[in-house]
Amino acid sequence: MRLGILIGLCWCLFHFTPASASPETVLDQLHQAAADANYEGYFNTFAENGVFIGTDASEVWTVDAFKDYARPIFAAGKGWVYHPTKRHVYYSETGEVAWFDELLNSESYGQSRGTGVLEKQNGEWKIVQYHLTFPIPNPIAKKLTDEIKAFQQQQSQ
Asked: CA–CA separation, 12 vs 92, rounded Å?
């Protein structure tokens, strides 16, 4: 009887103990590594099959493609600095998937938004998708989207 209880407790501890780092911690590590131009630290937060979606419509990168883009930037000791100011994290019923939205502030761009998905892989949270956007205030959305349409039309000529 005691052995059964002990096995049951061990099973619960194994299955319900959080991974070494929470999704929030992984996202903080991502931003810190980018600010430090820490290539290995930055890409260790991503899953091998991860995707980074940038602010430009053409920027949908696999992790390998994003590594190629970031390698020379980080090697030059440069990175990008985004400070999270507000974050929401939500979990699947199984606790194996988390999705988030976060407001970020940067000196170069002001406010931006990161959204994405993390998945628990081998007991560690990994980013499987990160999407960086610029939130557009509703009162100026029409003006900005008209500018984007005009730019896209000019590019297609």
From this structure: 18
Beta bridge partners of 27: none
Name the average pLDDT for the chain.
90
How many residues does this entry show for the chain? Answer: 157
Query: Any idea of the CA torsion for 133, 48, 29, 81, to the nearest 10 degrees?
Result: -40
Spatial contact of 39 and 71, defined as CB atoms under 8 Å apart:
yes
Q: In what order do the strands lie in the sheet with 46-53?
A: 60-62, 46-53, 124-133, 110-121, 97-106, 83-91
Strand, helix or coil for residue 1? coil
CA angle 69, 31, 98 (to 5 degrees): 100
CB under 8 Å, gap of 24 or more: what pairs does 89-92 form?
89/22, 89/23, 89/24
29-58 pLDDT, tens digit each: 999 999 999 999 999 999 999 999 999 999
